[in-house]
Automatic annotation (TrEMBL), chain A:
InterPro entries xrefs: PhnJ
Region Disordered, residue ranges: 1-25, 287-362
Protein name in UniProt: Carbon-phosphorus lyase complex subunit PhnJ
Pfam families given in the database record: PhnJ
Gene Ontology process terms (BP): organic phosphonate catabolic process
Domain of life: Archaea
Organism: Haloarcula pellucida
Keyword NAD: no
Record bears the keyword DNA-binding: no
Keyword terms: Lyase
UniProtKB/TrEMBL annotation, chain B:
InterPro entries reported for this sequence: AAA+_ATPase, ABC_transporter-like_ATP-bd, ABC_transporter-like_CS, P-loop_NTPase, PhnK
GO terms under biological process: organic phosphonate catabolic process
GO molecular function: ATP binding; ATP hydrolysis activity
UniProt keyword Phosphoprotein present: no
Organism: Haloarcula pellucida
Entry protein name: ABC transporter ATP-binding protein
Pfam families: ABC_tran
Transmembrane segments: none
TrEMBL record, chain C:
One GO BP: organic phosphonate metabolic process
Stored InterPro entries: PhnI
Keyword Iron in annotation: no
Stretches with biased composition (Basic and acidic residues): 351-361
Stretches the record annotates as Disordered: 170-190, 351-390
Composition bias, Acidic residues: 171-181, 362-371
Keyword Lyase: yes
Annotated protein name in UniProt: Carbon-phosphorus lyase complex subunit PhnI
Species of the source: Haloarcula pellucida
GO molecular function: lyase activity
Amino acid sequence: MTDERTADDPVASTDGGTTVPTDSVDAVLDSLDGDGLSGYNYAYLDEHTKREVRRATLKAVAVPGHQVPYASRPMPLARGWGTGGIQASLSLLGPDETFKVVDQGADESVNAANIRRLAENTADVETTTDTTEAGVVQTRHRIPEEVLTDEQILVLQVPITDPLRKVDSSDAANRRRHAHKNYGKMWVHLYENVVEWGEINIASRYPTMVAERYLMDPSPIPRWDVPKLDDAENLYVFAAGREARIYAVPPHTDVEPLAFEDREFTVERFPDAACHACGSTDTYLVEVSEESESPQTTREEGGGEAADSSFETRYACNDSSFCEKRREDSDIPKDHHLDREGVDWGPGTPDNEEASSGGAGE
Amino acid sequence: MTLLDAEGLRTVYGDGCDRCLDATGDRAGTNQCPHCGSVVACAEADLTVRAGEVLGIVGESGSGKSSLAEQLALERDPDAETDGVVRYAGHEGNLLDVDYETRHDLRTGDIALVHQHIRDGLNPEFTGGGNVAEKLLSAGWRSFEDVRARVRELFEATEIPVDRMDDPTSTYSGGMQRRVQIARALANDPELVVLDEPTTGLDVSVQARVLDMFRRVQREKGVAAVVVSHDLGVVRLLADRTLVMRHGRVVESGLTDRVMEDPHHEYTQTLINSVI
Amino acid sequence: MGYVAVTAGEELIERAEELFEKQRTAGDGEDVAVEQIDEQLGRLTSQAMSEAGLYAPRLAALAVKQAQGDTVEAAFLLRAYRSTLERYDETEPIAPSEMVASRRVSPAFKDVPGGQILGPTKDYTQRLLDFDLLEGDAEDPTEEWDIEDAGDPEDLTNVMELLREEGLVAEPDEAGVEEPTDTTREPVTHPPERDAVLQELARGETGAVTALAYSALRGYGQVHPTLAEVRIGELPVRIEHPYTGDEVTVAHAEVSESEAVVPVYAKREDPQFAFGYGLTFGRNERKAIGMTILDASIQLDGEDEPAENPEFVLDTVDGMDSFGFIEHLKLPHYVTFQSILDRIRAIRERKGLNEDGRVSTEADDEDSERDSDDRTPAAEPPVAEVSDDD
C-alpha cells in the first residue's frame, strides 16, 4: 500500500546542527531513514541475544516444565502482546523456515498479522496459514487442531508464567515451592474449588504437572488443548516477555492436569453444537451471537424475551485454518497429513474419548 | 521403645564466642553472654521421648523451652545458630542435618508441630477443612471423597462442629482454630506431635476442654507428644515426664508426679509454690 | 469469515496505522520539528529518556513526536530501539559529586556548603495559564539580565557526606558482587539486590514511582524522609580509551538526583538514619524524589506495606510492563472466554439454576439432598465469632 512511507518523513529532512556533542545521533537518525527496518539485524534481535534465548530454551528442554529466566529484550511489540513468543520464534527461525502465527485460533487476527509481519520483514521467512506446512508455529491461547509432528515447534505466548501465582503472589515463595515440589497449596486450592462449586472451577491456564516434577502453567489455552501436551511428537516452547521466563515440554513428556481421582479433569463441553461452517463436532468451538436472519424465535424457552429473539447463538470452529480444510472435505481427520491413523491428539481423537465426553461421571 | 533421642541441643542468637556456654545458664543466672552479647536460648539439652509418651517442658518465658521444641519439630530459624543431634527411630543419622526434602516429608508425616501462634500454623483464607486437607494432599492423597471423609473424622475426633468445616478458618473462634491445628497435626497419623504453648490465647474454660480433648486423642491414637508450656497445670495434666528449664538449661527432669511432689531444684520449688 | 471477532490482514493494520498518523497531521498547524520538541518540551523528553533508560534527547524527541506525546509509548519506542543496538562499551562509574549543578536545594538545612541554588524552577510561581504563550513569540526573559561572570562553579559538598562523616547515617552493606548487575540483560529474581532495585526504579514509570512513593508518605509505610539534596545538573560520561587506557569524557548527561535521610533507626544501640537515593535521566525531580522514598522503603524490607515490599514495587513500577499488559486486554480473548462460559454454565447447571437465574424448585430439592452431607447449609454468611466456641 504505502511503498514510499518515507517520502515525507520529517526525520529525513532534519539537518545535523544540534547541541549534541557527537554526530552519532544524526548517524542514527540517518540509519532510521529507509524502509523502516534496514539497519536492524537479521531476525531483529542481535545474534548474542538470540543465542541467549536459545540457551534458555535448551535449558528449558533439559528441565521440562521448569521456568528458566532469560533477559527478555524490549521488542517493538507491547509487552503482553507476544513479546516472549516472538523472541523465542525469532531466535529459532532461519531464512529457510516456514512460520505460522495464530492468535485465538485465527491466522487473520490483527495481532497475529502484526507478529507475522515482523518476522517476514526481519527474518525473511516464508509464512503460511496451513499448520501442516509450518516449521515453527507461534500461538496465543490455542494448540492447533491438526496433529503436530516431530519436525515442528509450537511457541506459545505466555502472560503469567507461574501456576502458583493463583495461590500466592510472591515469586520468591513460589520458586521455593517449585524447588521442593511442594504443591500442597495448589491442591488445597483445587479442594476448596470442589467444596465451593462441586467441581473444579478453573477455565483455562489449567495447572499441569510436567514429567511428574514441575507444576506448569500451560498458558491460557483452553482445557480442551491440555491433553495434547501429553506425549506429543513436537516440542512446545512457552515464552513470556514481560515476565522474562521460558519453559518447555519436550516431545514424549508426561503431562498431566492436576485433578482428583474422583473429580476428574474435564474439557469444555459443546453439547449438541457443531461448527456452522464445516459441521465439525470434534473441534474447539466458540460461540457468536448473530442477528437472526429468520424471523422466527430461535430459542425454545426464551419466547418471552424480545431482545433475545433477534439474536441467535452460532458455533464455529476456533481453528480457522483447519475449519477451511474441513469445509472442503468434511471427513478429514486431524491426523490426515500423517502416515499413521488414530493418533491421539486430545478431545475428539482416539484414546481420548474419556476427556472429550466432558463428564466427571455424575 | 525410644522414639526420639536428642543430645546437646543448642540454639544461639548472635555471633557467639568461646565463653558463651560458661557464662550463661542456671549458675550464671542469665542466658545472655556478658562477653559477646549473644543469647544462648538453649544449650546442653539432652532428652528422650518414648513411643506413646508425653514429655512436658516447663519454664518461664525466655527459659529456652520454645527453642528446644522448635528443634525437635525440625523448625529452622535462619537467624539462629544451632547444634546438637536428634536421632529418630527408623531414620539414619542426625535429623537436624537432613535436607529440605526429607525434613518436609518428616514434618508432613512423622513429626507434627502445633504452633503457639495460630497465624503460623493455619491459613485463615482456607476453610477449616482445607487447612486439615492440606496435610493429606501434601502427603499424596488424591481422592476427594477420601480426603473429605478423613477431614470429617478428624473434625469429630477433635470435637469441631463438622458443619463448620467448609467455612473460612478466619470465621472460627480461637478454641476451634486451636482444634483445627491439632486436627491438622494428627492428619497423617504422626508418631510425635510437638505442642508449643497449646493454651495461648484461650479462655480458661476453653483451655481445659482443648487439653482434655488432646489427652483423649493422644491416648486413643497412642501418639507421643512434647508439650511445651509456661503453665505447670498444662504439663501436670498431660505429661508423663517433665523437664524444667531455666536460663536456657534443663535444671531438673523426672516423672511428672515426682517433679511436682518432690521438686529437687530450688527453681522448681519456687515455680510449684507460686502456683499453689 | 465473519465469525472471527477481530479479523484483519496486514492491509487493515497498515490502514489503522495511517489513520493514527493522520490524527497528527490532520490539523492546520505546522508539523512540529523534532528540534522543537527537544528544545521546548524538555520535561517530556526527559520522562521518555528516563523511563526508557536511554539517554538520547534527540531520539527521545522523535519518539515523543511519533507517539503523539504519550511518554510511555515514547519510552517503549526507545527501549525497543535500544535493544537492537550493539553494546560497544561500558562507561566508568561516576561519583555524583562531579555534577555541575544548575539547581540544588537542601531542605534539611537552612544553609549548606556551596549554598542553595534555586536555578530554573516553577516551584514558587503561581500556576496561572500564561496567555502570552498563545502568541508564540519566544522571548528570552533573561536577556536583559546584568550579571558578571561568576567564574567557575563552586564545588558542592554533598550534605549527606557531612551527615555520614558524623556517623549519623547507616552505611549500606557492601555489595556482594564486584560488577553491578544489569537488569536489562539479567532478569530480576526475588529477593533482589539493591543494585537491581535502583536500576529498576530509575527506569520506572514516573506516575507509578510517584504513586507508590506517595503511598509510603500517605500512611502505608513509615518513610517520611527529610531531603538532604535535590539536584539537577550534568554528569560526565566517561569511557576507557581503547588504546591509551585513559579515562576520557565523551559526553555529558543531564540528571536529577535526590538523597534523603529517614528517621528510622535500625539498631537501638547505635541509632542511625536510614536513607534513600534517587537518580534519573533528565529533569524529573518528582521521580527522583519518589525513587528516593522507594529506595528507603525497600531497604526497610517490610511485608505489610506495599512500598516496602520489593517484589510488589518492582513488579508494578515498570511502565513498559504495565502499559503492555493493561492494553493487551484489548486483544481478543474469546477462546478463554468460551472456556470461562463453560465453567459458569456447568456450575449453574449443577446448582440447578435456570437461565433466568432462579433456582428451579425441583433441581433445588435434588441438589440440597445430594449436598447435604458435605456442604454447609450456610443459610447466612459466616460471621466472625467473638466469643469462644465450646
